[in-house]
Design a protein that fits this description.
CATH architecture of the largest domain: 3-Layer(aba) Sandwich
Shape: globular
CATH class of the largest domain: Alpha Beta
Structural class: alpha/beta
CATH topology of the largest domain: Aspartate Aminotransferase, domain 2
Largest sheet: 7 strands, mixed
Number of helices: 15
Strand content: 5-15%
Helix content: 25-40%
Oligomer: single chain
Distance between the termini: 19 Å
Number of domains: 2
Bound molecules: (4S)-4,5-diaminopentanoic acid
Order of helices and strands: HEEEHHEHEHHEHEHEHEEHHHEEHHEEH
Radius of gyration: 21 Å
Length: 427
């Protein structure tokens, strides 16, 4: 496959952009090749600048659940753009999207829009600290909640990919307020909480970890966290940036019937445009400025284009049978890939919830970051490259998640399974 234009664009980008990319995992460093530069996308397909077309399972890391360039989303963005891209002042669209999100999540009584998932989690943590008057927070090894200082401690995603789970540049004085526990290990959480009685403002969790590969919660884990937080006056922040409107319309909280005090969202609610949001109980949200004293602001918060794309997207997700289609397509892919990997001597572990999935190159089950780190990342890299060469675009790291869209066709899924069979045969 000729990727000459991507190669030269990457060389040029590296002269003016650190690593040639605006987000580290995009550099493909851990999979042993250079990144493809994208020209355009439509539906399930993405096309690079050399004209190679790929079946896309990255989906902009989650938002493109409708596929790329859904006509109704494109139309909404175009119409809104014609009336102004940004005002830095309230619009009716912000309330419309807020109402749609509140209707989907019964525990979100009030919500504030921001411009990214990082802003959402960072703001939710400040709010939890302001509301409780406590400083310490607890997160889970391998979970990633964006790149705010307090959250780059034992984090997943790019940090896991590059083997530096705690970033240089985070002052030790900040990091000391971030406690960590093992994902899916309630006893470990109980120990940390007991050792810090009355000092924890919040526990923040990805209800399905999607930044150390795809790691579902074990039975009782989320319920146990809920009980513990209620008993100890700790704010439970459920980070649904990835899972919200993805694994069900009401996210992982609907799927697992566990409710956070605060919820963070992003990705799908912006229909592919930069957006984030955090919301929850009125009593907590009203501690935010200008009602309360906890400060948070943003010129592009509630941006008209992002609101329009989000509203158009959520309307389409409400169509009868939408999540059933995502489930059926994902289950079909799962069945085919399990046949492929089942016939291979290479140890792999497929994990999936709805339209989120990954194939770990290790024996499973993978319940924690320590488990995920047992993966053979070299073998994953060979698999990734083979799939890319066969026109299948997977997330370029073992420690990321794949995403299904409703636009993936039967032919796409069959081609993916065939490509995986060839890739495994050659590993
Ligand atoms: N690490 C991010 C997803 N988990 C990747 C974001 C991006 O590169 O766009």
């Amino acid at each position: 496959m000729n990727r000459q234009t991507s190669e030269s664009l990457f060389a040029k980008a590296q002269t003016v952009i650190p690593g040639g990319v605006n987000s580290p995992v995009r550099a493909f460093k851990s999979v042993g090749c250079n990144p493809i530069f994208i020209k355009q996308a439509a539906g399930s397909r993405i096309t690079d600048v050399d004209g190679n077309e790929y079946i896309d399972y990255v989906g902009s890391w989650g938002p493109m659940i409708l596929g790329h360039c859904h006509p109704k989303v494109v139309e909404a963005i175009q119409q809104t753009a014609a009336s102004g891209a940004s005002f830095g002042a309230p619009t009716a669209r912000e309330t419309e999207l807020a109402e749609m999100v509140c209707a989907a999540f019964p525990n979100i009584e009030k919500i504030r829009m921001v411009s990214s998932g990082t802003e959402a989690t960072m703001s939710a943590i400040r709010l939890a600290r302001g509301y409780t008057g406590r400083d310490k927070i607890l997160k889970f090894d391998g979970c990633y909640h964006g790149h705010a200082d307090s959250l780059l401690v034992k984090a997943g995603s790019g940090l896991a990919t590059f083997g530096v789970p705690t970033s240089p540049g985070v002052p030790a004085d900040f990091a000391k307020y971030t406690l960590t526990a093992t994902y899916n290990d309630l006893e470990d959480v109980r120990k940390v909480v007991a050792a810090n009685q009355g000092e924890l403002a919040c526990i923040i969790i990805e209800p399905i970890a999607g930044n150390m590969g795809c790691v579902p919660p074990v039975a009782g884990f989320l319920e146990g966290l809920r009980e513990l937080c209620t008993a100890e006056g700790i704010v439970l922040i459920i980070d649904e940036v990835m899972t919200g409107f993805r694994v069900a319309y009401g996210g992982a909280q609907e799927r697992f019937n566990v409710r956070g005090d605060l919820v963070t969202l992003g990705k799908i609610i912006g229909g592919g445009l930069p957006v984030g949001a955090f919301g929850g109980k009125k009593e907590i949200m009203d501690a935010l400025s200008p009602e309360g004293g906890v400060y948070q602001a943003g010129t592009l918060s509630g941006n008209p284009l992002a609101m329009s794309a989000g509203i158009a997207t959520l309307k389409l997700l409400q169509e009868e049978g939408f999540y059933q289609q995502i489930e059926e397509k994902s289950a079909y892919l799962e069945k085919g890939l399990l046949e492929v990997t089942g016939n291979s001597p290479i140890a792999t572990c497929w994990q999936r919830v709805g339209g989120m999935f990954c194939n770990f190159f290790c024996a499973g089950p993978v319940n924690s970051f320590a488990d995920a780190q047992k993966s053979d990342t070299e073998a994953f890299g060979r698999y990734f490259r083979s799939m890319l060469d066969q026109g299948i675009n997977l997330a370029p790291s073992q420690f990321e998640t794949g995403f299904m869209s409703v636009a993936h066709s039967q032919e796409d899924l069959d081609r993916t399974i065939e490509a995986a069979a060839k890739a495994f045969a050659a590993l």
